[in-house]
Amino acid sequence: MRRALLIAFVFVLLAAAVFGVWWKFFRAPVTGVEEGPLRLIATGFEDVPGWKDADLSAALSAFRRSCVKILGLPSNAPMAYAGTADDWRGACGGAFVAKNARAFFEQDFTPHAVGSDEGLVTGYYEPLLSGSRRRHAQFQTPVYGMPEDLITIDLGAFRPEWKGETIAGRLNGRKLVPFQTRAQIDARPPEKTRVLFYCDDPVSVFFLHIQGSGRVRLDDGSTVRVTYAAQNGHPYTPIGRVLIRKFGVPREGMSMQVIRAWLKDHPDDAQKVMETDASFIFFDEKPVGDPALGPEGSGGVALTPRASIAIDNRIHPFGLPVFITGDSLVSLFIAQDTGGAIRGAARADIFFGFGPNAEQTAGGMKANARFYVLLPKGLKPKLAA
User: What does the pLDDT read at residue 278?
Assistant: First the structure.
């Protein structure tokens, strides 16, 4: 008991110290994302560019899935600035009986512009990999399950202003120390960690880490899904920046496809470039379930292609409808996931689904757009000064 209390006390002190260092040195600003306090400006649907022509049916289906989670919450469960779960019960009840998506959203919600500037929209997808349960022939790159000694600390449990922030490491005696980096894991597989399967392509596994989930077609003919289980606690470094800075790859036109092609064409340099990203993801194995839907997002529901987005859940609640409008993008989405690179009020990552077409679209998705959040009618957002 005494040792457990001591470890808990060490965690509190270490969490405060590590978070301060991480925030100062590793939190990279995202271009095009508005900084500062969240500002929401109530408006009418007639003043939202592109609203009247957008197809809202997929968003309604996605919203119904989120409502199952919302309706299961205690009445006073907070929804960030958007009241409590009780404030959403009327809208959720209406969603399940709605026959017309546009009429439903216009009747039950009020749009609010997020600030006055454009934000940034990118995309992600669910890749397909080839694998085997045993290491043989071309199947040499491991995909790891959750390490037994990996400890993840939710800093929000210690201070409300740290909501959504975590650190991770492992115990060394009575000290929490950093977990291995990607390069260290590649050089020496972590102990107490199960290999789920081996894949035939290290570049594909690297992109699986970036996407956070995927499907694996095994050499016995079966297909399984892997989903995010944990991260090693090291900051994510986009290797596109490394290719630009150290290898002279043009900044213009940089995309996931460009990065993948470069790694394939430069096998002697590929591993060291990938290892400049110290972040490393561990996975859970799940059944595929409904193949038309994606994996379960951080919001606890299966993702809907082209209707689910990852948002900064330190700011926005899961289940929030978000209308995004720009030159190349006009659609309604539901906030059902998050990610370490998604930072800021006007920042979103669209889930495009599974397969080569989804990969092509997600890999080239980078656009500036205006954001509008939809709040239940009559609800006044509670914003920090």
Answer: 97
